[in-house]
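hey so u asked for the seq, here:
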Amino acid sequence: MYDLILISPINTQLGRFKRFVPRSVPIGIGILAGFLRKQGLSVKIIDQELIDINVNTIKDIFEQCKKPHIVGVSVMTANVASGYRIAELIKSVDKEAVVIFGGIHATVMPDEILQNGNIDFIIKGEAEYTFLELIRQIQSGSFEREKLENIGFVEDGKIVYTKTSTKMVDVNEVPMFPYDMYDPSQYNLGFILTSRGCPFDCIFCSQRVITKRSYRYTSSERVIEELDYLINELKQPNITFFDDYFTGNKKRVFELCDMIQKKGFHKKASFGVQTRGDSINKELMKAMRAANFNSLMFGVETASENLMKLINKAETVQENIDAIKLAREMGFAVEATFIFGFPTETFDDRFAALSLAHDMGIDRARFNNATPYPGTAMYDMVKDKIKKEPMWVNFSSAGAVTAGIRKKYPLPYIPDGCTEKELEGTILLANLLFYLNFTNLKKLFNPGQSGSGKWFEVSKKEMLSISTLIDLSLLASTVLIRSLNYLLSSKNCRRFFLRGIRQ
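ran it, structure tokens below
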């Protein structure tokens, strides 16, 4: 019998693209589940991407659980609508069930969540220590709020918060990720997380809400132990480091590269990381290549130095250009992300980003819309101009790309001097134009592709199936119809496209 359930709600905004987007492992609840299991608790993980959560499935799950039924739901702004529906279903099955919300949205919008009426507690920030103590209190039937930090609840009709603690989790106390709790036939388990946090403060990043600007990393020995499991037990040939800032400590990277080679892991697997242009150099790249790191992803975001300063990236466009040029010379596959729709951004800024992606010879690129998530500096900067749909259903950083022909929701923010149609259109056209050549298209459809920036995934077997071909045709039709609509209705979209095909 399980002591508790942890649920990852679905993001419903991917539309027809969902079929081809790599299924993400719910890493946050996995880390929490592994920590709680180490403390002697039995945990059931539910991923709504795989399981349709309805009254019957909840009843079935509760039959496997001890009472009181304890359910933790990790919510981001993009999936909080699904989280609310899950909480409502849980309470309809068992009014006495204890529903606990955590994650980014629970941290920045606790009042909103507690006013919902179906959520008993929220946990702010990193959840491990607080969640463990809260579960123990619920199971014992003795609620001692003075022992709890960073939680909120409703008492006598009023929202109450316990004392705030800034204590950060010691990542070396958190056990290895519980890969055994996930079905390898449903997920790509070729990943590892070896640090937590990032010392930078980009205005669009909501992750800092949880980790602040602290940067903590597990010991090199611990990393090697986990890589040993992934390579020799799970037989993973491509492993992506999901660290926000893998190269934050160069000495550690050199040490890991050396240890990987001594263990012979570089002969059995390749590795990919996310990094920054200002934190990587030739010496470091040389060490990483020797250890069979073959993929680097850069958050370039923009080709404008002025915008770089505005978004507080703390690096320059030129640093990214130099780093990417060097990475390609040294044989790395290079991936990059770009964001359209920052405040003060112009048409020329957006086209410059597309040109930069072409000029740098990037292997895979992704262009998304700037989303002012609650808790970010961008949210505070533009909050008077935000278009918010009920339950934040339009808050998706990929909303401009993944919308269907009949678009349901407006983008949450449009910079001055730009229309929504122009912003949506140039984002969609940028992704389309980047892959309008055989070389880049081949890389996009390569079933063996690896790296953090992968956003399209279909196995070689599935690629040849009739259902996949039908879905791809429908997807292509959707992209074509939307593109034609933008081209016919927006002069700037036509300018963007014509300039793009000429470059």
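The radius of gyration is 23 Å. The chain has two domains: 4-161, 188-382+426-457.
lmk if thats what u needed
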